[in-house]
Amino acid sequence: MSLVEGSKGLLGLWGFFLRRFKSKTRMLRMGPRLSNPITQDECLYDDLWSKKADSTFIDVLVELNLLGDWKVGRPSPSIFNYTRLVLIAEHEAYFNLQELGERFEFLHKRYSVFSWMLHKHGLRHCFQSNILTAPVAIWDDKFESNPFSVAYQHSGDPRWGDLRFIGDTQDVVQDRNSTNVVAGAHKDTSHHTALQHLCSTRNSIFPPHHTRPSDASSEESVNTQSMLEEYAQLKF
């Protein structure tokens, strides 16, 4: 073998290893591999439900939950009707009860999927920055197992602290892989304690909650109807 041929061989071998190194480095830097990149906003909102309308809808549901007008499970039609009035007053957004019910189910889906992701091995969630990180192979597995998980390919749900009121349980779902679970849980508790205090004052747009017997189902509709009438008087 001549010196020239030997040099070419070494250069070829060096080029091979260099390409492999670049490929490995690129794989380590990569996040989720999507053929058609999609943003979180595109997954969570659309022409019907804007980000502002979605946020208001969640705010109202959480406040009514803290007031005791609904707890676990699907809210009654009177609760949805109340949120409908608020959305009209705040955003001039008109929804029928079916659309509100479908949106509630979508919120429940967001809760279920993100909760499922937090319990999966290999994914890490930083509560403070709300950023998710995981090896590419983990992302591929999650996308295949649950396509909606692409909504959280970079960051967690923006309303995760409130979506626990939408889920099947009101217990805070702890992230086993979080970088600061304790700090996150403390922040969540203080936020909703302050919100509950706000809801109990006359400064809130909602009427104060009146204790009623748990078996008085007829009183619930009467109380909610009075809430609707009072809100209508305040806004219209």
TrEMBL record:
Bias regions of kind Polar residues — which residues? 214-224
- Which stretches does the entry tag as region Disordered? 205-224
Name of protein: Pentatricopeptide repeat (PPR) superfamily protein
